[in-house]
Amino acid sequence: NKTTDIYWAPDSVKYFISFITMATPLGEECSDVFTEEKVALVALRELIPDVLTERHNFDNDYQLIKWLRARKFNVTKAAKMIRQHLIFIDTYDLDLIYRWQIPEVFEKYLPYGIFGQDRMCRPVQYLFFGQMDMAGLSQCGSVNDFRRFMHLTELSAGKLCRELSVNCGRQVDQVTLVVDLDGLSYQHFYPRALAIFKPIVRELEDNYPEVLAQILVITNSPIFHLAWEISSHFIDEGTKKKIHFLKPNECGRVLPKFIEPSQLPVFYGGTAIFPDTIYRGGVIPERYYLKNILEERQHELTIVPVRAKGSVTVQIEVTEPNSVLTWIFKTDNYDISFGVYFKPLCDIDTSLSAVQKCVLEPRRVDCQVIPEKGDTICHLAGSYIFHFDNSYSWFHNK
């Protein structure tokens, strides 16, 4: 039926598997060959001398080798991947991500956290995916909020790896991921949630290669096994070797093979006390939904009609460089195209044709369903223009 078609579309299933394992659907693993690695590293360094800085975390061979492995030691492709990564960092201001304030709902209700180390001194990430309220979560933040949070987790894991390298006296550059699917149901295939996470999963694959050493999936769910049967042919053999499946009643016997009992939570058969600060799942209170937050701020809203085949611009003057510009809006009915543009202060022409830079590419947003929330860092003082475009609609005012 129609609902089943939405839930079980092969592309959605592929990215569901990719999301919970953070594995590349069409993975590009490569066996370690020391001579090949050494030659490739020299060649890669010659191609990117301008980006070999500590700021971008390309200061040692252990980091560079990940990008080479992700492209099967094709040096040209690895160099291109690195340069695209730097463009990505600049586009989303990820160098300044530690200035970002994590939304309270993420801190309290995302069932994810890092706790302890595995037997190789690698940090262990826990994702209680089966208890994640996907429908509720998708109504609590913007795509950019989720993007920042997931990239922040990767950056935090990388920072912890570097600290453990010093403390353990060995190179630590990967993590172990434990994914608990207890409670998995059809709600985890909520269409809006999949639409949010699909592009973010792609970004993680492209910008954080070879992060996972192993994925331990705890499941006894027939839903997951069906999804795996559908999607496993998208995942290469090298990535499959990293994934280990175990049933809930096998945790006490299997997990200690990977994680010392002193580092393993009691509820998985270890002796460690799992911190209360890491949420283990449940329904998110509706007070965190963007639509309810917006209703509480009705007195701050301005109602603006956008005619069919027309558009509306809103100009914001920013006088302090590196200010943060935020927005939230909704339509009563139908979607609207939204983009953000920049003009220098000296430019008195207010037309979009005079705009020098597109800050946020225009795209149609379904803000009649869930309010659209976002922000950007204004690196330069000047005029920032919100452009609400309804030119594609022949009949509907918005």
Structural descriptors:
disordered N terminus, 398 residues, 19% strand, alpha/beta, globular, four-stranded antiparallel beta sheet, five-stranded mixed beta sheet
Topology:
Blueprint: H1 2-7, H2 10-21, H3 34-47, H4 61-70, H5 75-91, H6 104-109, E1 112-117, E2 123-127, H7 134-137, H8 143-168, E3 175-180, H9 191-207, E4 212-218, H10 222-231, H11 237-240, E5 243-246, H12 251-254, H13 290-296, E6 311-318, E7 323-329, E8 336-343, E9 357-365, E10 372-378, E11 382-389
Parallel strand pairs: 2-3, 3-4, 4-5
Antiparallel strand pairs: 1-2, 6-11, 7-10, 8-9, 8-11
Question: Could you report the average pLDDT, rounded to the nearest whole number?
Answer: 83
Largest sheet: 5 strands, mixed
What's the gyration radius in Å?
23 Å
Number of helical regions? 13
Gap from first CA to last CA:
33 Å
Percent range for helical residues? 25-40%
Order of helices and strands: HHHHHHEEHHEHEHHEHHEEEEEE
**Lateral strand order in the biggest sheet:** 1-2-3-4-5
How big a fraction of the residues is strand? 15-25%
| Counted beta strands | 11
Low-confidence stretches: 1-10, 23-33
Shape category: globular
Structural class: alpha/beta
